[in-house]
Amino acid sequence: MPEIIIYLSKGESELFVEQSLQQLTPVTTDTVIAAVTIDVNRTYQEMDGFGASFTDSAAYLINQVLDSEQKAELMSKLFDPQAGIGLSVVRNPMGASDYARDIYSYDDLPEQETDTELTRFTIAHDEVDIIPLLQQALKLNPELKLMASPWSAPGWMKTSGSMIAGELKKEYFQVYADYFVRYIQAFAKSGLPTYAVTPQNEPLFEPHHYPSMLMLAEAQSDFIKNYLKPNFIKHNIDTKILCYDHNWDRPDYPLTVLEHAEEEVDGIAWHWYGGDASAQSVVKQAFADKEVHFTEGSGGEWIPPFEQAFSNVIRTGIEILRNHSKSFVLWNMALDEHNGPTVPGFGKSTCRGIVQINQQTKELTYTLDYYALAHFSKFIRPGALRVDSTSSNEFIRSVAFRNTDHTIALVLFNDGEEAENIAVNLQEAELVTFRIESKSAVSIMITV
């Protein structure tokens, strides 16, 4: 008999709780059973992992607001594969994002000045909170992969003269490619290799209340093909280049980039704020050798907690993975009791962090996003191969992986309005039967 470990989330009062087979509601023989069948012979993408972002705000809250004991506990629960949920991907903003205490790049200058040699380039800002936390995370989980995405180039490189809005001036394409090299080299000196970069976060969105930069598909193709990739080759940098880094509703953008810079692009990065996850497969079908990554999705007040919000993360996470993604990365690792800090002038924030850190009381709260990520990250480990899983009931969503140690990880979600009886089958053999309540999530680790 295979060894089976089961974790269950059933409402806000019972989140990611280990269950013995005896604790699960048994299924009687005369009831209708939904069969979930795992086929390990049909394989798909290899997993890099799950995670969130050490934005300036998140890093400040964790590194400066929490006391040393709280910080150690949190970092362990986030990154330790045994004592915690083993997060294995972190996506860092390159400079300020909307979740930063002020607006900054790595080469800020007075108005009308330029620095084409990047003589004033510095990552000193990140050395205060972000880099120490990344180093600690990497020590807790040596399989951690670091991604990086800018919200804007330094203002002096742009048509707006500011990190707010505008486009990258053509005459600074090479300087901006040098800027990426300097960033990667500087982080490497701190023992932090950069696994992948994107040229621009949300390149089709140009808000005027936080750092942003419009970068149309044709400009991104040109930048990657003629400047960024050649610069990486020149400096012996093997960091992957992912294009797009925006919502599912514009697959035409990455398709355009890949048509012009196919050899220079390693994959596509996606967000969930528009469209649906099937767009990942549309582009994958057109460019089968390109990786798929999901690099940002935030929970927030626009979806009511608890059940609707928790269900959304689990449901969407399963679909992201079933549509070939090698990563599933949420947004802020931590926010405070006001969903901040945010850049000056941002206004009311409605986003939710993986944890909440109250700046007044210092209280640390693990949010629903932490427990939703746990259902995936705890058992689907880096290097796992997605294997086929099918359900005879349309409301029972599933995704399955075979880990490098040959254990099988299965995530199930009952998206229906009624409890359902489940039989989990590995190939033709029935492993376990149980009853799963409506809007409940179950993660199963099978040692065969």
Strand adjacency order, main sheet: 2-1-22-19-18-17-3-20-21
Report the uncertain regions.
none
Supply the number of helical segments: 9
CATH architecture of the largest domain: Alpha-Beta Barrel
What is the residue-mean pLDDT, rounded to a whole number?
96
State Rg: 22 Å
Morphology call: globular
Q: Main beta sheet: strand number and arrangement?
A: 9 strands, mixed
Beta strand count? 22
The CATH class of the largest domain is identified as Alpha Beta
Number of domains: 2
Family: Belongs to the glycosyl hydrolase 30 family.
Keywords: Glycosidase, Hydrolase, Signal
Protein name: Glycosyl hydrolase
Domain Glycosyl hydrolase family 30 beta sandwich: 383-443
Would you spell out the secondary-structure blueprint of this structure?
Blueprint: E1 3-9, E2 17-19, E3 34-46, E4 49-53, H1 56-65, H2 68-79, E5 89-93, H3 130-140, E6 145-149, H4 173-189, E7 196-197, H5 217-234, E8 240-247, H6 252-261, E9 267-271, H7 278-286, E10 291-296, E11 299-300, H8 307-322, E12 325-332, E13 334-335, E14 351-352, E15 355-357, E16 364-366, H9 368-377, E17 385-391, E18 396-402, E19 408-414, E20 420-426, E21 429-436, E22 441-447
Helix pairs in contact: 2-3, 4-5, 5-6, 8-9
Could you provide a short overview of the structure?
The protein is an alpha/beta fold and 448 residues long.
What do you see in this structure?
The protein has 448 residues and is α/β, with parallel strands linked by helices. The protein has 9 helices and 22 strands. The protein has 2 domains: 3-45 and 386-447, Golgi alpha-mannosidase II (Immunoglobulin-like, Sandwich), CATH 2.60.40.1180; 48-382, TIM Barrel (Alpha-Beta Barrel). It has helices at 56-65, 68-79, 130-140, 173-189, 217-234, 252-261, 278-286, 307-322, 368-377; strands spanning 3-9, 17-19, 34-46, 49-53, 89-93, 145-149, 196-197, 240-247, 267-271, 291-296, 299-300, 325-332, 334-335, 351-352, 355-357, 364-366, 385-391, 396-402, 408-414, 420-426, 429-436, 441-447. A 9-stranded mixed sheet has the order 2-1-22-19-18-17-3-20-21, covered by helices on one side. An 8-stranded parallel beta barrel has the order 4-5-6-7-8-9-10-12, surrounded by 5 helices. The protein has a 3-stranded mixed sheet with strand order 13-15-16. The longest helix has 18 residues, at 217-234. The N and C termini lie close together (8 Å). 51% of the residues are buried. Residues 48-380 form the Glycosyl hydrolase family 30 TIM-barrel domain.
